[in-house]
Amino acid sequence: MKANRTGRGKAQAIAASAAETQLFVRTLKLTDFRNYARADLKLDARPVVLVGDNGSGKTNLLEAVSLLAPGQGLRGRPYSELCRKEGAGGFAVAANLVSRQDEVEIGTGLAAGTREESAGRIVRIAGKEESAGALAEHVQLVWLIPAMDGLFTDPASERRRFLDRLVLAVDPKMRTPLGRYDRAMRQRNRLFQMREGSRALFDGLEQQMAEAGVAIAAARLDAVARLIALIERMRAARGDGPFPWALIELEGRLEEVLTRQPATEVEDEFRARLEEGRERDRAACRALEGPHLSDLIVFHGPKDTPAPHCSSGEQKALLIGLILAKAELIKELEGACPLVLLDEVAAHLDQAHREALFGEILRLGTQAWMTGTDRDLFAPLAENAQIFAVNRGKIAA
């Protein structure tokens, strides 16, 4: 009994200390979300472990938490797909979040009867309807899911998504230029498809692409520079650490030119290149130059080897190291650690790396949400975590 009391006291002390500076979910309620008719979780600041068979709904809970931040969640699916099949057509996710001893109520979802694939979600913060982008003022998230295991070998578009999530973590206001560039580029591509030849229409869209595109490239350079500097500081303070450190580079024309020319000159040059390349782009029905083609190049630092050339185990460890570094960077910038969502990560690590990961989570002071099919894998974390059994849309402590 004495050992049990000591374990509980240690866990409570960690929770109380973390709650002073940490973002965490205090309550989470789901209605008609994925396979959950109803769910109600009451939590503290400690890590959350969800254990259950495959298909039981563990990842669905992580996805619900990811909707407390801007964007379409960790799976990126249309909101209409998140509605429970047997439900009325809508869904609701509600949470009380604590950060720096402030607490805010957040709710999001679709109205009942909504089935359109393109439907946008409703967001309410402290009872007031807001845009999804406003969630960035309250919630920061990082995640690692099995679909990201091929990040270093997948097409460059996957690494750009990873990169731009880093950009938004550093500067949430960059959501506006990212959206503006994408809309202008799509409209320009549509003009090509319509065989439109109006110079004025192209001029206006290309000006928008130039302004937003250079802002995006500059923000990417800044975010990557911050992450590189943090990795170097961590290595200087702690050595190489349990997970390999990453060497990171940006590959893209705008990013390269911005390292040696003022942004105004780069903007003018990019706009001129878009104008000159209209006929080439018309033939391709798409823009063949711009930040939508840039790439994030990652090397395994200790081996000085391109990440795609590493083994799958080395790539996984490198990716975990990047996710942890990103969380550390957000903590440094925001003063509070983000929520960290890790889906089925423990099963793919040996015992030493599992224990190292749990140690890093406790050191960060994050309410990490982790899933797994085997509770024993989380035994080293058991005293300092909240563990729930998940079974076909039912949750039990």
Could you describe the 3D structure shown?
This protein is of the alpha/beta class. It is built from 10 helices and 15 strands. Strand 1 (24-33) and strand 2 (36-42) form a beta hairpin. The longest helix is centred in the middle third of the chain and has 40 residues, at 199-238. It is globular, with a radius of gyration of 22 Å. The two termini are 20 Å apart. The model is unreliable at 1-20 (pLDDT under 50).
Rounded to the nearest angstrom, the distance between the terminal CA atoms is: 20 Å
Low-confidence stretches: 1-20
Report the structural category.
alpha/beta
Please give the count of helices.
Answer: 10
Strand content: 15-25%
Radius of gyration: 22 Å
Helicity range: 40-55%
Order of helices and strands: HEEEHEEEEEHHHEHHHEEHEHEEE
Report mean pLDDT, rounded to a whole number.
91
Task: Please specify the SSE layout and strand pairing.
Elements: H1 2-19, E1 24-33, E2 36-42, E3 48-51, H2 58-66, E4 91-99, E5 102-110, E6 122-125, E7 128-130, E8 141-144, H3 156-170, H4 175-193, H5 199-238, E9 246-251, H6 253-258, H7 263-276, H8 278-284, E10 295-300, E11 305-306, H9 312-334, E12 339-342, H10 351-364, E13 368-372, E14 386-391, E15 394-396
Parallel strand pairs: 3-13, 3-14, 8-12, 12-13
Antiparallel strand pairs: 1-2, 1-4, 4-5, 5-6, 6-7, 9-10, 10-11, 14-15
Helix pairs in contact: 3-5, 4-5, 5-7, 5-9, 9-10
